[in-house]
Write a structure and sequence with these properties.
It is built from 13 helices and ten strands. It is of the alpha/beta class and 287 residues long. The strands form two sheets. It has an eight-stranded mixed sheet, with helices on both faces. A hairpin with a 2-residue loop joins strand 1 and strand 2. Helix 1 (46-52) crosses helix 13 (270-282), helix 4 crosses helix 10 and helix 7 (157-166) crosses helix 8. 47% of the residues are buried. InterPro entries: AB_hydrolase_1, AB_hydrolase_fold. This is Alpha/beta fold hydrolase.
Length: 287
């Protein structure tokens, strides 16, 4: 299945290397790829589809094993998630370089894609991205404990409510609809297994592991891809102090701190996020 570049709105699935991947495709223009975080889905980008599609072709997807996309063969890893993306871009007709936006885990996936396939990435916008420090919420660290991690991920409304509230500073964004989606994702076959595997690939009880972070940043620096790093100053998942680390590790990157904002600035500060992204992309446009 191939989505035409001039498509206005497409929501469905595409076959990529034998995997069925769920995606959304809106707008037209320079392509933008949006990557969600761990245990999340493409719905985290609805607000940015609504705003960015006026001037760009905007693509989002459920990363393999998350949401309603098929799992990768074998254990799910950061490298495996990133390796699936060139095939996805080919399948939807986005053969040239794209602007890539990643939130949380999606930021690390975006960096890995850029490091491994620099010709596919025009720029990087990393929002509250994994990869800049070891500190992470205890809720993810305890997933390393077997079998406690699997028990904690059993679908229940109270847990879905807590986790949804934790990603926002303003809890009015933790709507009933978002809680229901969290419940549905947790009940979907393979979703929680993928979450556990990726969490254990990247970290443990002591936090996010250093070796993969150091190697990834070194690879990214060597590619010299224009990068913007943004953060919410009230992030309970990955602390805003990681933005200071990003400034040190990527001295050529642009940065922005959103005040009174949690882990999802693309939702809580949707207008400001879209304006910032649009200006950043425009400076690196093909037109």
């Amino acid at each position: 299945m191939t989505a035409a570049a001039e498509s206005t709105v497409t929501t469905g699935t595409v076959q990529v290397g034998g995997l069925r991947m769920r995606y959304r495709d809106t707008g037209a223009g320079d392509p933008v790829l949006l990557l969600h975080g761990i245990g999340r889905s493409l719905e985290d980008w609805t607000e940015q589809h609504d705003r960015l599609s006026a001037g760009h072709r905007v693509l989002s997807l459920d990363l393999p094993g998350f949401g309603y996309s098929d799992r990768l063969p074998g254990p799910s890893t950061l490298d495996g998630l990133a390796a699936a993306l060139p095939g996805f871009l080919d399948a939807v007709g986005a053969a040239g370089p794209v602007h890539v936006v990643g939130n949380s885990l999606g930021g690390a996936v975006a960096m890995r894609l850029a490091a491994d396939h620099p010709g596919r990435v025009r720029s990087l916008l990393l929002a509250n991205s994994a990869g800049f420090g070891k500190e992470v919420t205890i809720a993810l660290r305890i997933l390393a404990i077997r079998p406690l991690g699997a028990l904690l991920l059993r679908p229940n409304r109270a847990g879905a409510t807590r986790t949804t509230q934790a990603i926002f500073r303003d809890r009015s964004f933790a709507t009933a609809e978002r809680v229901e989606l969290a419940l549905a994702l947790a009940a979907h076959p393979g979703h929680n297994r993928t979450l556990l595997e990726v969490a254990r690939d990247l970290g443990g009880l002591r936090g996010v592991r250093e070796p993969w972070r150091t190697a990834l940043i070194a690879d990214l620096i060597a590619r010299r891809i224009p990068t913007l790093v943004v953060w919410g100053d009230r992030d309970l998942i990955l602390p805003a102090a990681h933005l200071d680390a990003a400034r040190t590790l990527l001295p050529d990157a642009e940065t922005r701190l959103f005040p009174d904002t949690g882990h999802m600035p693309q939702i809580e500060r949707a207008d400001e996020f879209a304006e910032l992204a649009t200006a950043f992309f425009a400076a690196r446009s093909t037109s």
